[in-house]
Design brief:
Mean pLDDT: 93
Distance between the termini: 60 Å
Oligomer: single chain
CATH class of the largest domain: Alpha Beta
Number of strands: 17
Low-confidence stretches: 418-425
CATH topology of the largest domain: UDP-N-acetylmuramoyl-L-alanine:D-glutamate ligase
Radius of gyration: 22 Å
Strand order of the largest sheet: 7-8-6-9-10-11
Shape: globular
Length: 425
């Protein structure tokens, strides 16, 4: 019998993972309700769909009656720890878990969990692809593709989950225990949520808090603060470290696959054939000799540093969004070398402008469409228009995927049309 059967459970947050959690709980026999402080036509449509399945839903606010008397709270990753709904849960001594904890608790497959500031999506995707190439059944879940809660019902013993997990998701785990944990790197991010890097690292470290000597922890040897975690875990530690001809993401994948007995040759074959992930240095098109690159997943400064270091063309950089208490001055020298113009959007544009004033020409735009069109107008053949925002997307978009899709659609519409209405080459 399901451990959730007849339990009164409330899900806080009705984004993609929250909806999946509510549906899973309903399937497991729980008495489910859900609450979201947001209010939009799209959210109201989601709420109606959930109500049709017998899930009680409130939108536009959190109310205490939606929390009082519940046996369990499941929290979506976007919910701030100081949310009134979570404060009430603590006041009523109601256990709070994250949606990855919920899915893990009923998951028959082996879980490989990947966290870090940058590279999570690429490593998560590559691990699943290598495992599948080696004849195992693996799916990449979490912050990419389908939520863990949505896919868990399709998994069986012997399968593998390659799971991207964020620090936000790790804040609310209780017993979550991956067979293999991976901590890729740590650079400044989410400092609007964490008071300092020490608190940010503490959230990341929760990935291995329940691991035992039967489990594995993969760490980046080249980062001293991560190397030092070897003394803080009961798990067997496997390091990856810099090597010629392989990047850190590939080295992390090889460390995981080595634990599972998968050969280096299979890994290298998958690396050679890998096309990359959507929204990470994704080439969208070339129009009139100008490349358009979608790097919407660059939600922090360090990620944009990586993007610019991999650019050989002069770039017009579209940046901005919701600030995460980032220090944009740290990128000034690289911007000066690589970028001919910045086009700023979103809530952070004034902060970015003040941080980089005098470094390079900058313009502002009120929308993504205006930013793309202004960038294209200023670009010359051989240039690149790069969307690499350095910021979260939530001021203007649902998430970084939504931001990237909007960018791609606008670029598609830049192409001139031939007289018969077809797009020109």
């Amino acid at each position: 019998m399901s451990i959730y059967k007849n339990k009164k459970v409330v899900v806080i947050g009705l984004a993609r993972s929250g909806i999946a959690a509510a549906n899973l709980l309903k399937d497991l026999g729980a008495i489910v309700s859900a609450t979201d402080s947001g209010d939009s036509p799209a959210l109201r449509a989601k709420a109606e769909d959930s109500r049709s399945k017998g899930i009680a839903v409130e939108t536009g606010r959190h109310t205490i009656d939606f929390i009082r008397g519940r046996d369990l709270v499941v929290v979506s990753p976007g919910i701030h720890p100081k949310s009134p709904a979570l404060s009430w849960a603590r006041e009523f001594n109601i256990p709070v878990i994250s949606e990855i904890e919920l899915a893990w608790s009923v998951c028959p497959a082996e879980v490989i969990a990947i966290t870090g500031t940058n590279g999570k999506t690429t490593v998560t995707t590559l691990i699943a692809e290598v495992l599948n190439a080696a004849g195992k059944k693996a799916v990449a879940l979490g912050n990419i593709g389908k939520p863990f809660c949505e896919e868990v019902k399709n998994l069986k013993s012997g399968d593998f989950v390659s799971l991207e997990v964020s620090s936000f998701q790790l804040e609310a785990i209780d017993k979550f225990r991956p067979k293999i944990s991976v901590l890729l790197n740590l650079t400044p991010d989410h400092l609007d949520r964490y008071k300092d890097m020490s608190e940010y690292l503490a959230a990341k470290k929760r990935i291995f808090k329940n691991q035992s000597a039967e489990d594995y922890l993969v760490l980046n040897y080249d980062q001293p603060e991560l190397r030092a975690l070897e003394t803080e875990t009961k798990a067997k530690v496997v390091f990856f470290r810099e090597q010629a001809n392989l990047n850190p993401n590939q080295l992390a994948v090889m460390a995981v696959c080595g634990i599972l007995g998968i050969s280096r040759e299979i890994c290298l074959k998958v690396f050679r054939e890998f096309k990359g992930v959507e929204h990470r240095m994704e080439k969208v098109d070339n129009i009139s000799g100008v490349d358009f690159i979608n790097d919407s997943k660059a939600t922090n400064v360090d990620s944009t540093v990586w993007a610019l270091n991999n650019m050989i063309q002069p770039a017009i950089l579209i940046a901005g969004g919701r600030d995460k208490n980032s220090d944009y001055k740290t990128i000034a020298d690289l911007i000066r070398q690589k970028v001919k113009l910045m086009v700023l959007i979103g809530e952070a544009k004034a902060k970015i402008y003040n941080s980089l004033k005098g470094v390079l020409p900058m313009s502002e735009a009120s929308s993504m469409e205006e930013a793309v069109r202004l960038s294209f107008k200023q670009a010359k053949s051989g240039d690149c228009v790069l969307l690499s925002p350095m910021c979260a997307s939530f001021d203007m978009f649902d998430n970084y995927e939504h931001r990237g899709r909007v960018f791609k659609e606008i670029v598609k519409n830049l192409k001139p049309k031939t007289p018969d209405g077809c797009l020109g080459e």
